[in-house]
Specification:
The structure is a single chain. This protein has five helices and seven strands. The protein is of the alpha+beta class and about 160 residues long. Strands 1, 2, 5, 6 and 7 form a five-stranded mixed beta sheet that branches. It is globular, with a radius of gyration of 20 Å.
Length: about 160
């Protein structure tokens, strides 16, 4: 009798241990996904800000760090930040109004590394150097320098 109880507890414990990583992944915080890049850009420019777009990949640990430690605080402070995902079939209106999947946008922008952060200004043009990758002790400084460059370009 005691052996059955111990076996059930062991099985339950192993099941919980195996499911826990999936639950943590499911709880990852995501940036908003735009319906229209043109609309998101217009709203950003109305506030004299660039539109910041993070190209992300589900399950990417560097994407999670960039998003949660750097971009979510910027979003909370009022910076227009959205997320486009590699291998995602959701559609979004591009800057020219055409419908494209997230994955098609990433390919059209020639983004090959996750995460990549892009900075857009008038007419959907990039106004600062892309921030590619996320494995750097200086990520925050690199992000701030590009944001300053993008804000200057948008305001001039």
């Amino acid at each position: 009798m005691s052996g059955d109880r111990t076996r059930r507890q062991l099985v339950a414990g192993l099941a919980a241990w195996c499911v826990a990583p999936m639950a943590v992944h499911a709880a990852d915080v995501q940036l908003p996904a735009p319906v229209s890049l043109a609309g998101a850009l217009a709203a950003a420019l109305a506030r004299a800000q660039p539109l910041v777009v993070m190209a992300s990949l589900q399950g990417c640990p560097f994407c999670k760090i960039a998003r949660e430690h750097y971009l979510m605080p910027e979003l909370a402070a009022g910076l227009p930040v959205v997320q486009i995902d590699f291998r995602d079939a959701r559609t979004v209106r591009d800057f020219d109004g055409s419908a494209r999947t997230h994955d098609a946008l990433i390919k059209a922008w020639h983004v090959s590394v996750a995460p990549t952060v892009l900075f857009f200004g008038r007419n959907g043009r990039e106004v600062a150097e892309r921030l590619t990758g996320g494995d750097s002790d200086f990520y925050g400084a690199y992000l701030e320098a590009r944001l300053q460059q993008a804000r200057t370009a948008v305001r001039s």
